[in-house]
Amino acid sequence: MSTGTNRIFDDFARLMTDAAGAAQGVRKEVETAFHAQAERFLNGMDIVKREEFEAVREMAARARDENDALKARIEALEAKLGK
């Protein structure tokens, strides 16, 4: 009788392991579908990605620095010509 009980427990444990594996597969599938839907939604809203934003911000900072340097040069030239 103990062999029968052990077999029932083994079968039950195998069933639970299979159920856990199936649940994990379903979870992964739902997660993938959610991410795809969220990406489609964000692309439809024309939202800028972080990398693109950082790149443009860096370009603007460099342009601002260059404008300040050019302004200083113009002011120096104007001062030199004004004397």
Automatic annotation (TrEMBL):
Source domain of life: Bacteria
Q: Which organism is it from?
A: Neorhizobium alkalisoli
Q: What UniProt keywords apply to this chain's record, in alphabetical order?
A: Coiled coil
Pfam families, A to Z = BMFP (PF04380)
Q: Which residues form a coiled coil?
A: 53-80
Task: Report the protein name in the record.
Answer: BMFP domain-containing protein YqiC
